[in-house]
Each structure stands twice: as structure tokens, then as C-alpha cells.
Amino acid sequence: MTTSLINLAAGLHGTAPALLAEGGPPSFLGNPMFMMVIMFAIIYFMVLRPMSKQEKDRKSRVETLKKGDEVVLNGGILGRISSIDDTIAMVEIADRVKIRVLKKDISDTRAAVLEKDAKDSKDKGKDKDKGESKDAKSAS
Q1: Distance CA 99, CA 90 (A)
Q2: Which long-range contacts (CB under 8 A, 24 or more apart) does 100-103 make?
Q3: What is the pTM of this model?
Q4: What is the pLDDT of residues 38-56, one digit of tens each?
């Protein structure tokens, strides 16, 4: 296609060599397809891969649940497993109050959720402290 454009330009103006001399070969880094591949790789390694690892860890914890483990259900209900089979778990949410839930609806173990929550609140505290120190510096 480029040769046909060059031949067309040569036929109209007689300056085909001038067209070739003006611009160099296109840069590999300037290629939009290359930039899209790089952006996808960045998103994959920074977002998708860690999320899939976390989900895999959560699923392994749910698969290894046993009687007596404390769990958090998807709705935020806390309870203790009183019996469990392949797909259904019996969760005691209060004294003598048991509900049957699907194993897929168990969010995680209580310890893992509390650990994650403590880590998130610690990170928010650091961000808040940084914001306060910036405000104190700007005020003085």
C-alpha cells in the first residue's frame, strides 16, 4: 500500500525520493499496539494477578474449614461451623440458632477477615497521619 502511495505521489509531483527522505522508519515504541500490550501487562501484574492470588488463598481456606471454625458469611454474619459437608455448612450464629448455608456463601474465616481489616485500618491511619503532617507544615 505504501508503494502505491509513493507511486501516486511520484506521478503527481515527481518527488518520490523526497517522501522517503523526510521521515525515518516508524519507532517501535511509538506503535499504539505496543503501548496497549504494555498497559495490559502493567494492569495484569499490578491488579489482576494479586487479586487472583487472594481469591485462591480464600478458596483454599474455605475448603479446609472444619467443625468449630469461626466464619464470616457474605452478608457479614458471624458464626461457628457446627457441621459441614461437600456443599452445605451448618453455621451456629447464636445459642441454639443454626442456619444452613452453601459453602460458596462463606466469605472467609473470621481470623482472616479481622487480620485484613486491621491491616486496612493501619494503612488508613498512616495516610491520615501523612495528611495531618502536610497540613501542619503548610500552616506554619
Answers
A1: 6
A2: 101/73, 103/62, 103/65
A3: 0.56
A4: 999 999 999 999 999 989 9
